[in-house]
Amino acid sequence: MKKFSIISLGILASFQWANAQVISSKKWADLFSYNNVLAMKEDNGKIVAATENGVFYYTISSGEITKLSKANGLHEVKISAFDYNPQTKIGLVGYQNGSLDVITPEGITYVVDIPIATGYNGSKRINHISITGDKAVVSVGYGVSIFNLNSKEFGDSAFFMTGGVYEASNEATILGNKVFSATNTGLKSHEMNTTFPVFSTWTTEMAGTFTHVDSESVLTFSSPTTAYLYNSGTSTPLPQTFTKIHDVVVTTNNIIVTDQNRVYNFNTNGTASGTVSFGEECNTATSINGKVYGGTILSGIKDESNTIFKPDGPYFNYSYKISLYDNNQLLVSSGGRESRFNTPLANAKNPGFYYFDGMQWIYPSYFVNTNKIFNVLDVTANPSDISEVFFANYTFSDGHGIHKMKYNASTKDFDFVNYYDLGTPSVFFFRPVGLTYDDQNNLFASISFVENGTAGMAAYDKTADKFIVKNTNFSSAVQKPLYYEKLFWTPLPRNSTFFAYDYKNTPTNVSDDGIYTLSQANGFAGNSNGTLSVAIDKAGDAWIGTDSGLRILSNAVVAIKEPNAEVKPIVIEQNGIGEELFRDSQILQIEVDAGDHKWVSVDGGGVYYLSSDGQQTIKHFTKENSPLPTNSITDIKVDRKTGKVYFVSYDGIVTYQGDVADVTSNFGNVLVYPNPVVYSNFKGKVTIKGLAEKTNIRITDAAGNVVHSAVARGGYYEWDLNNQRGSRVASGIYFVLMTNEDGSDKATAKIAVVN
Question: Which domains does the chain have, with CATH numbers?
Answer without folding.
Answer: 28-309 (2.130.10.10), 321-476+485-657 (2.130.10.10), 671-753 (2.60.40.4070)
